[in-house]
Specification:
It is found in: Cytoplasm. By secondary structure, the chain is of the alpha/beta class. The chain has 14 helices and 17 strands. The strands form four sheets. The protein has a nine-stranded mixed beta sheet with strand order 9-10-8-7-6-5-4-1-11, sandwiched between helices. A three-stranded antiparallel beta sheet has the order 12-13-14, with no helix packed on it. The protein starts with 21 loop residues before the first strand and ends with a helix.
């Protein structure tokens, strides 16, 4: 069991989890900050790369000893924005502190298509990277321009092909409901994607996050959202087209070929804990969530002064952990076994009435101890999950 039941169960008590088996490391550097991006990202500040690596080393030293993991995910930003010497130093560093266990493991690195070269892929493979996640977003030149992406459709295709030949396990992200986009444009993106040598596909509806350029432009009415009817059709196509090509729709936004689900993300959805390092990174260890400062410069300054990079921290109660594990677990199309969340009587006492209400309106379905989203619930999953939380 992930949640320990000794001492006796108490919903108000601090949550306790087994040591994590996953780790995430955030790389903040990018060539350009896209208008929709709300991540901890620095564009045009490659002068800070060495200082970042020094700070990251200082943060990882706080672990005292290496932590063996089953999944390691390097995200950003753009990890492949590093030049070869910096990437080598980075991979050595994270490989020392987060060594992969034996057996079935997963080492993922995010990348932008226009950063992909044969030499960089060879370097990643040399350090054990066995999965690459490309921020393609679209194969349509006009849509890429709207999204402020710096690669061309041909560069995306070349990066996928080269990554498949070298790494073998390739995932890409696609975005739908871009301003001005039609369902036909989105269907073409999906058809292009499933014709490529992919093992995994993530499809996300564009969100306008407060503080981004897109948010500001939306307020000024210089861009507009796609009408709801078209967004719904795009979501339907995001399910149907990959499915017809042999992909399994296993999570609200994620599709995988058989045996190629993202094991690292499964740790998030199951709420079993993970280590994290880098600016803005959020860890979840022994029931305690800690979030590093989002500002890369502040993150660097704090660590190089011998201070903690943590900006926020919270110890979850058993009740909070149950709610989060149910809510995020429901993102998986197979649903969740409530007995894996906690004692069934405790889970039902806490959420049983909420479950029943969502079942009665057709958003959830339950068979015995297993509960999951219905087809209707899938299309309004965010609202369903917020009810649980």
């Amino acid at each position: 069991m992930v949640i320990k039941k000794d001492p006796p169960w108490d919903l108000a008590a601090p949550a306790r989890l087994d040591p994590p088996r996953s780790a995430y490391v955030h790389v903040p550097f990018c060539q350009h900050r896209c208008g929709y991006c709300n991540f901890s990202v620095l564009a045009g500040r490659d002068d800070l790369v060495d200082a970042y690596l020094d700070a990251l080393e200082a943060e990882l030293n706080r672990l005292v000893e290496p932590r063996t993991v089953d999944t390691l995910f390097i995200g950003g930003g753009t990890p492949t924005h590093f030049d070869s010497p910096a990437l080598t130093r980075f991979l050595r560093l994270v490989g020392h502190w987060f060594p992969l266990s034996g057996g079935a493991t997963e080492f993922s690195v995010e990348a932008n298509p226009n950063d992909i070269t044969q030499s960089k892929l060879d370097l990643l493979k040399q350090f054990g990277v066995d999965r690459i996640s490309l921020g393609v977003q679209s194969f349509n030149a006009n849509k890429l321009s709207t999204l402020e992406r710096s690669h061309s459709p041909d560069e995306a295709r070349r990066a996928i092909q080269l990554s498949a030949e070298t790494i073998g396990n390739v995932s890409i992200d696609l975005i739908f409901a871009t301003p001005g986009e039609t369902p036909d444009v989105w269907r073409a993106d999906l058809c292009d994607a499933v014709a490529m040598p992919l093992s995994h596909l993530s499809t996300y509806g564009l969100t306008f996050e407060k503080g981004t350029q897109f948010w500001n432009r939306l307020q000024k009415a210089t861009i507009a959202t796609v009408i709801e009817e078209d967004q719904l059709q795009m979501f339907r196509d995001a399910i149907a087209i990959p499915k017809a090509a042999g992909f399994e729709h296993y999570e609200v936004s994620n599709h995988a070929m058989p045996g190629r689900r993202c094991q690292h993300n499964m740790a998030y959805w199951r709420g079993v804990g993970w280590y994290a390092a880098g600016p803005g990174a959020a860890s979840f260890v022994d029931g305690r969530r800690e979030v590093n400062h989002r500002s890369t410069t502040t993150y660097i300054k704090r660590l190089l002064r011998g201070e903690s990079p943590i900006a926020e921290s919270e110890t979850l109660t058993q009740e909070q952990l149950i709610r989060e594990r149910v809510a995020f677990g429901l993102r998986m199309l197979a649903g969740i076994d409530l007995c894996e969340v906690g004692p069934l009587a405790v889970v039902d006492a806490l959420l049983g009435k909420k479950f029943q209400m969502l079942i009665e309106i057709g958003m959830l379905a339950r068979t015995g101890d297993r509960i999951g989203l219905t087809a209707d619930g899938l299309f309004v999953s965010d609202s369903v999950l917020s009810e649980i939380l």
